[in-house]
Amino acid sequence: MTNPLIYLARMLVFLAAVGGLAYVLRVDLLRVFLNTPILNGVILGVLVIGILLVMRQVLALRPEIAWLRAFRNRAADAPAPDSNSVDLLAPMAAMLREKQGKLSLSPMATRGMLDGIASRLDERRELTRYTIGLLIFLGLLGTFWGLLETIGAVADAIGGLKVTSGDALQMFDTLKAGIQGPMKGMATAFGASLFGLSGSLVLGFLELQASQAQGRFHNELDEWLSGATRVSGGSLQIEGDQAVPAYVEALLERTADGLDDLGRTLKRSEENRADAQAANAMLVDRMGTLTETMRAQQMLLAKLAENSVELRATLHKLADAVGSPAASAETEAMRGHLRNMEAYLARLLEETGRSRSALADELRGEFKLLARTIASSRAGDPPAPR
Question: Phi and psi for 361 in degrees, rounded to 5?
Fold first, then answer.
């Protein structure tokens, strides 16, 4: 999009040239201005207001262009930018607020948006056009006012002349004094015309630059929307050459948008399903590892049980051997060994209990993770087609 500041720079350069010319002719312009300062002041005030209005029209295009650039450069799934700062593109922003992905419009929607924007641009230019006409009207008003003063002063001058046989010099002085009124009226007429027409010329050039800026904005917007317009192939016809009704076309567009949304939803569901499958595979691997650990612990417990049975038989034999008087010294030694073995078995049983508790906690956590994963995978599935 073309930056509107280029046209604003042209306006400032033109105003600087006009200001320089007015500075050079300041003495004559001041003399003409002082003939009718009230009317000429009103003309200059209207000119200043018109210049501000034209510049405001150009500056008002900047937020519109900024919003349009943000909308064109947004991500595929990102929402439309905030439209609070736009006025000219407000209807377009309201229509495209829910659009995601690639922009696709029908020729009817594109034509409607462009016509609405063109009407808003024309509405903005009406005030400056009225200001130009007002300057011309004020200039003509000053002209007629001056001519009326001139006619009245001429009539008074002619009525005041008295042709007598007196001094001709005195008669000439009287005529010269009577001509001052018509001359003042002519100065009023031509001065007002000068300021009015000059102001309309200046404001007309500025309005031309503003129109070019708005026209460039409208043309570039038309080119961008033309690239996003989906042209119908004309395959849907009813009753010979009669085209599809507008409501059918709107229904088809709505259906296409719904299919696009459904495709994006299915894509997200497929991604969630792939993540759930990866989590399930990881959980199955961990459960396999836990199963092998439990099998190894069961084998260890079985061996401990066998060793306990053998150890019980050995203890019975030792008890019988301890009952004989000849083995008293060996009995004491065996008792010491038995105490050591009892302490070792108690420590072994305690470690076995702790390992079982840890195994149970780990299994409980894994089962909770499996339940959450299954629940999330069921929640992420798309609804079944009806």
Answer: -65, -45
